[in-house]
Design brief:
The protein has 698 residues and is of the alpha/beta class. It folds into four domains: 216 residues, Quinone Oxidoreductase, Chain A, domain 1, CATH 3.90.180.10; 136 residues, NAD(P)-binding Rossmann-like Domain (Rossmann fold), CATH 3.40.50; 133 residues, NAD(P)-binding Rossmann-like Domain (Rossmann fold); 187 residues, Dihydrodipicolinate Reductase, domain 2 (2-Layer Sandwich). Strands 25-26-27-24-28-29-30-31 form an eight-stranded mixed beta sheet, covered by helices on one side. A hairpin with a 7-residue loop joins strand 30 and strand 31. Helix 6 packs across helix 13. The radius of gyration is 29 Å and the shape is globular.
């Protein structure tokens, strides 16, 4: 399918695999998409800046790159930055079309429905979320439906202003979003003052019912006070985009005492407190389509907010906007200046940025032809049977920043296929590593006889189900941790692996690090039990992050398994007792498995204590291990430095972190070639224990 993308300031279409049908979503064939002259164009413009310019404007990302450099070295850090720059970004977020398929857990939609969709990029096919999708009435075309997202944004801004019949509102910025806001304010019974720096935009606003038009080059404050009998407007809605705080300062100047200011557009907000204080103004930010936006539970899981408590959610805002269009109270079609075919997308974006064209709204028309396929093939050299051909399932940040560069650098492997639910990510990854094809359906990898090894780097709750299918398909498996997020899946995976005899390795990489291997060799002849403490300064993750939900299983299951496995590897004895204590205080910011201390007791008397906390600073080193055994002390500092009192194992310091990621793929190679065997029971014990401990602190 075709998707509109941008990279380095250029906008174009890219052929990518179409999204697969999802049980929780709706597959829609796009008819029309609306170009947003604000958000979209600013994103495209930002992508054209130099690295230095981006570094100045995004210092937090520079810090992340520096930290990555310290951890993985210059080449890997550069590879990651390059992958981010060279990967195109999808454009757009408002479209309409026809439902092709409906997920089994979705209600209220069926194939053939005409729908409007918000929050999805411009593409031939989109996988729509139910709470961001609205059915269209028979008297509404998909051309009108394509305005859904912009209409909902404008409506939420008007709701935040909470204007009453007869009040006077000012709208600063009369682009498409501003014109929609003007129309909605008129429907609400308000008089409207329109303010803009463009005479042409003022004339556009007049056509759609704006009562007073003020050119921003004139004495706006004086004219507003003349219109409002000297009191000022009841509310100001800022729909302009500006890098300065001038629109906000203007809003303060023209607003009456105890009035309201609502920011919808992207403007700078260095706010003068004294001016707000004197007038006792209310200041509001309007977040996109309304309550529910950016809430994973609402948007991804379709868990609604009760209408008794949240009258206007983003979906109910969308429904209300479509109702107004159906009643002909909002004029949509006359705003469409031009319709471009998908083949002319570059021209469309050029025209909308050209002031002389005076384009208020432009639509992209997509081909009616059926172009649905979840796979894209590339012309590459023939398969090399002497190498292990890899299919990567999941192309997120960890895969891009860690796994894929390591696999690519290892001459024994060849990346042959890339799979992601995001077709653009799959396509970009496949091209970057010279793969034969990209897909959004991992079954395309499991069914391919040329794939020898499946690398699973998806979200945690899918690891075990995909690994079970891969084993039954006869593929060697590398699965990122955890093995499984519950006991049922773990038991099924264990049984499948033992029945099939398939080579399997889970990403408990720390046991393969040079630090672990050197210490383990020393301990092979130890005489007495050991004592170990492992402190993890894990850093804060917001409660609504997917790691805390069903997809992640929580931080103990998702990451704690690493540290339990490391202790098990070093002690190399069976665990006979495990205890865990978590911070009991209820907090909206932390989960119970964010902060805990657990103690493992082994059959030889050894004891390992793991302290995991999200209460510290991420800038401080993450992992610190102390081991005491046979009169000696060993300290591993963030897998960069080893300090030892043992003359047989002198301390050393590396230039970068070595957590065993490279080594685990060397071990995997030997496992596939049957040169070594791995203790699968150790991995199972670690996972069983992690699940058990997680249940104890729920």
């Amino acid at each position: 399918m075709k998707q509109i993308v941008f990279k380095k300031g250029s906008i174009y279409t890219e052929e990518i695999p179409a999204p697969p049908v999802d049980e929780n979503k709706i597959l829609v064939k796009t008819h029309y998409a609306l170009i947003s002259s604000g958000t979209e164009l600013s994103g495209i413009a930002a992508s054209s800046g130099s690295l230095i310019k981006k570094a100045i404007t995004q210092p937090e990302k520079v810090k992340k790159v520096i930290n990555r450099y310290k951890q993985v070295g210059f080449k890997r850090a550069l590879d990651f930055v390059d992958s981010q720059i060279e990967t195109p970004k999808g454009s757009g977020y408002s479209c309409a079309g026809e439902v092709i398929a409906v997920g089994t857990k979705v209600h209220g939609f069926q194939a053939g429905d005409q729908v409007a969709v918000a929050g999805e990029h411009h593409a031939d096919y989109v996988l729509a979320r139910p709470h961001l999708t609205v059915r269209l009435f028979d008297n509404i075309s998909t051309k009108e439906g394509a305005f859904l997202a912009l209409g909902a944004i404008a409506l939420q801004g008007v709701r935040r202003a909470d204007n009453r019949i007869g009040e006077i509102a000012a709208v600063i910025g009369l682009g498409l979003l501003g014109i929609l806001t003007v129309q909605l304010l008129k429907v609400a019974g308000n008089r409207v003052i329109g303010i803009d720096i463009s005479e042409q935009k003022l004339q556009n606003a007049k056509q759609y019912g704006c009562d007073y038009l003020l050119l921003n080059k004139e004495n706006v404050k004086e004219k507003v006070f003349n219109v409002t009998d000297g009191s000022g407007v009841d509310s100001v809605i800022i729909t302009a985009a500006s890098k300065s705080s001038a629109p906000v300062k203007q809003a303060i100047a023209i607003c009456r005492r105890k009035g309201k200011i609502v920011v919808v557009g992207d403007v700078d907000m260095h706010l003068p407190r004294a001016d707000f204080y004197r007038k006792e103004l209310d200041f509001f930010i309007s977040t996109s389509y309304g309550p529910g936006r950016y809430d994973q539970r609402y948007e991804e899981l379709s868990i609604d907010y009760p209408i008794d408590y949240v009258r206007w959610t983003e979906n109910r805002n969308m429904q209300a906007f479509i109702d107004l269009v159906a009643q002909k109270k909002i004029d949509i079609l006359s705003m469409v200046s031009q319709i471009y075919s998908i083949e002319n997308v570059t021209q469309a974006y050029a025209d909308i940025q050209n002031p002389e064209k005076n384009i208020l709204a432009a639509l992209i028309e997509f081909s009616k032809a059926d172009s649905y396929t979840t796979k894209k093939n590339y012309s590459v050299k023939p398969i090399d049977k002497s190498k292990i051909n890899v299919g990567i399932i999941g192309t997120g940040d960890f895969a891009q920043g860690t796994l894929l560069p390591i696999i690519n650098d290892n001459k024994n492997y060849r990346i042959n296929a890339a799979c992601s639910l995001d077709g653009l990510s799959a396509d970009s990854t496949a091209k970057r590593y010279g793969a034969s094809y990209a897909t959004t359906d991992y079954q395309q990898i499991l069914a391919n006889p040329e794939i020898d090894l499946v690398v699973i780097a998806t979200r945690h709750n899918s690891h075990a189900p995909i690994a079970i299918e891969a084993a039954k398909a006869g593929k060697a498996i590398f699965s990122e941790k955890p093995m499984a997020v519950n006991t049922k899946e773990l038991k099924e995976l264990e049984q499948t692996l033992k029945e099939t005899g398939i080579p399997y390795l889970v990403g408990f990489n720390r046991r393969f690090s040079p630090f672990a291997q050197k210490i383990k060799n020393i301990f092979a002849t130890r005489s007495n039990p050991l004592i170990m403490t492992y402190r993890i300064n894990a850093g804060y993750i917001p409660p609504d992050h997917w790691v805390h939900g069903d997809e992640g299983g929580g931080r103990l299951i998702g990451e704690g398994c690493h540290f339990i496995d490391f202790c098990n590897c070093i002690v190399n004895k069976k665990i006979i007792e495990a205890n865990i204590v978590a911070i009991d205080k209820q907090s909206a910011n932390y989960q119970r498995n964010d902060n805990y201390s657990l103690t493992l007791t082994y059959e030889d008397g050894s004891v390992a204590t793991i302290i995991y906390t999200a209460l510290g600073k991420k800038e401080f080193p993450k992992e610190y291990i102390e081991i005491f055994s046979d009169g000696e002390i060993y300290i591993i500092d963030d897998f960069i430095k080893l300090t030892s009192t043992n003359s047989l194992l002198p301390g050393f310091k590396l230039k970068r972190q070595e957590k065993g990621h490279v080594e685990e793929f060397n071990v995997l190679l030997s496992l596939i070639k049957h040169d070594v065997s791995l203790p699968i029971d150790d991995f199972i014990q670690t996972t069983e224990l992690t699940i058990y401990l997680n249940q104890k602190i729920q």
